[in-house]
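Students often ask why we bother encoding 3D structure as a string. The short answer is that it lets us treat folding as translation between two languages. Here is a chain of 277 residues written in the first language.
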Amino acid sequence: MEHREKIAFLGLGRMGTPMARRLLAAGHPLTVWNRTAARTGPLVAEGAAHAARPADAVRDADVVITMLAGPDALTEVADAVLPALPEGVHWVEMSTVGPDAVHALAARLGGRAVLVDAPVTGSTDRAADGALGILAGGETAGVEHILARLGTVTRTGPAGSGAALKLVVNTAVISGVALVAETLRLADALGIDGDTAHAALAEGPLAGAVARAFSENADFATTLALKDLGLAAAVTELPAVQAVSAALRHAAQEPGVAAADLSRAAARIRTRTTVPA
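And here it is in the second language, the structure alphabet:
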């Protein structure tokens, strides 16, 4: 009988829930924790165990997976988890937190656990289908078969390199979506039919960004996009990225936009009547 590692999955947001569900369906004994405990309910009904605290989730785990909102959430969970963390466990950090947060976590672990940083590309639809892109840094040998249940693994180098590449990818995607929105705003101002402009852009080098700007299946909140751009801008001077951040912050002031998918913010950028300072 094939061994199934005990997995502690911490963070059941829009991405974490479908990812955890795939691991549960694959037969892994799964313990789940989320800050809002009610979110564990559906997975518990499907056979997962509920942990009231992060430490309770990891106490008997072979693998710990974190899928959290950002660096502050990771630090808070690490504070709670470290006293109960089993020696030699694999910790797979899949949030978008940037390389500094990964290196800080590695320093705190001090070799007590095997740390893999494996942030993902793709949205909730791809998470549910097990079709995510997984950018894996560090020693992945012990968990690559688990990651493969979630998507396609790309080895990126040492620990922290996955987190670094994820910032590069997300910065390009988010900025591209904003550029498409403003380009369509230009088309509107020039009196070009919107569908004609859309089709022309979809045939050019921004095709991927066009598709993302009009996606109806993705679920990536504008607040999280702004968090990612902030992490990128903290690394080096990025004037264009700062301009994109300003446009997104302005769009996020509209009711319902901040928590909605990035495509909603793109629509607001296209139609805005004032230019952000």
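Translate back mentally: The beta strands are 7-10, 30-33, 49-50, 63-66, 90-93, 114-117, 120-121, 132-138, 151-157. Keep this in mind for the problem set.
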